[in-house]
Amino acid sequence: MKKHTAVLLAALAVFVVVAAGNVSAADNVSDGSIICNVTTTGYECDSWSDEQYPVIDLFGAEYVPLFPTDGNIWDSHVNKLTGLILDSNETQVLEAGEILDLGQGYALEVREIDIDSEKAWLELTRDGQYIADKNVSMDTDDNRTWTVALDDVQDGNNIVVMKVHVKNLFVGSEKRIVWIDGIWLADYANARTLNVGDEFGELDEFGEFTLNQIINGTDASNLGSLVFGSVSVTDDTPVTYDTSVNDTSTAGFSASLSSKNESNKFTNTSTEPPASWYWNFWKSFTMKLK
């Protein structure tokens, strides 16, 4: 079973991609800001191959913006983030009464299997406490998916926290079995809301990042972004750039370096408009939300 683990806002490097034609993002990066864009990714389960969910990369770690069941993917809450625990297409063969450990305190229990009505009664718990349950019907493929949506998750309602796909049921003389071939689970209990002005540091000698702007999504081409303020570095910290991507252009920048805990300005001097930015400060650091 493929499991995901993430510590919120921990990083070893900063990688920022600026989409071509996104003028505001390019302007922000050129004045020292760091743009983290919401993108989409597909579910591992084959039965959900035509569906996607939002993700955002923050300083090398991937998170899921909370999203509702009754909206478009760009309606996700850009600044309300959680870690992804599980995205699996491995087949789980479970008997009635069996409990599947999903990780980080979450569990899925098969309460009952009724072959006459072709239903499996499933229950989601966390730390042994009831969260949600459903009799999953086998009559249509759509009904074989149980989407768990909860209210009051970081003040949001109808937030998708888990998806389960039931492939088949079997009842024999001694055993009742359910085949589950898709599980997706977000750690909604540990979700958190980021606000403008939140500081992420101290980053040892690097100073701090500050969340400067929250850009909500508008359509499929703009799913939303988080804009962070400049990082402070000391004047003896090497900063490099890579010119190997495009041999026809020359990458470059100038830097105005100040003392520790003060902002530093980087100015783009490349001969062509950059398609992406890679910031490498050569030292590992861990960010913590103040």
TrEMBL record:
Stretches assigned to the S-layer family duplication domain: 38-204
InterPro entries membership: S_layer-rel_Mac (IPR006457)
Name of the protein in its database record: S-layer family duplication domain-containing protein
